[in-house]
Design goal:
Helix content is 19%, strand content 35%. The chain is built from 5 helices and 10 strands.
Length: 353
Amino acid sequence: MSVCLLVLCLAVLLQGGRAGPEPPGCLSPEAVRAAEEALEQINQDRTHGYVLGLNRVYDVALQQEKEKGGSLYKLTIDVMETKCHITSRKPWKECEIRTIGDIPVYGECEVSAFVDTQVKLQSFSCALREVPAVAVLNVCPDCPTADNLEEPVVKETANLSLQRFNKESYLANYFSLENITKASSQWVVGPSYFVEFTIVETVCSNKTADSELSNCTPMDCQFAHRGFCLGSHMTSDEVFVWRRPVKRKDSQFHRTAVKVNCEIYEPQTANAEKLSHAIADVGHAELQDHNHTHLHPHEHAHAVTPGPDRPVSAPAGSLGTVVYRPASPRSSPAARSCPGQARHHLGIISLRL
């Protein structure tokens, strides 16, 4: 009799609505969508560092807000750093996750997002950390390991890489070093150093004499182009023998291997400026392409004023924080089907990614 009574009571509770449906778990399409779109907005909100990619939804809580016609999601998501710098403004789904040989960084973000027909980020707090060198070498003994950004050889590698870029650049203006963002080293046939760094357009022409480059200040302008570079420098000078034609002596020379690859990004305000001039019909034909010459005098003559069809975006960096701190014990997920399945693995079991 008591068993039947218990079953009857449970049935009454469910029919009465006092036991509502379970919130969506980490594998539900709604939670994954909220996490993916919120992370895209987190990356857009940030002004420094690298684009973060989603690894998995770790936990989720849902609060219905019927008066607003949507739901408030509280998400814990695991993220991993990509190879794209924030300067690129590339969507995270287009960016490659750093592997074990790329000085990987991982972490977690606490996210609040309102969801109806769209996902609107409310706030976020992310904690990131670099994978320890010991953990990398235990799995991959030959992989590069992180270096201190203040080391003289790191700065030398960045400067040599930038020199080569400017020398070979087809752009009209000289670029200067803005920030060194990552550095690593590896023994190949000698000590080899790898750097990642950002660069900024200066007021000087790329034809400026070397003796005058110290006067080339960064362009203090919303139209200044910026770029992201990968550079490398093999510090051991190898001796190469050049075989001359018959009856001429062979000669020896030293070669220092310096490589660089840079992406230059069009300023976000350039398209708005282009539209502004097109609407005003001021006759600047060269604006149609707005290439990387960046020598148009009108670009410095006035600021872009948002029109009725161009809303003013919120200032970057206003919705949350990203800090670097060591991993700490975390509580088990509260929601069902959590955590979700990890999308990326570094092969380091101790990290439990």
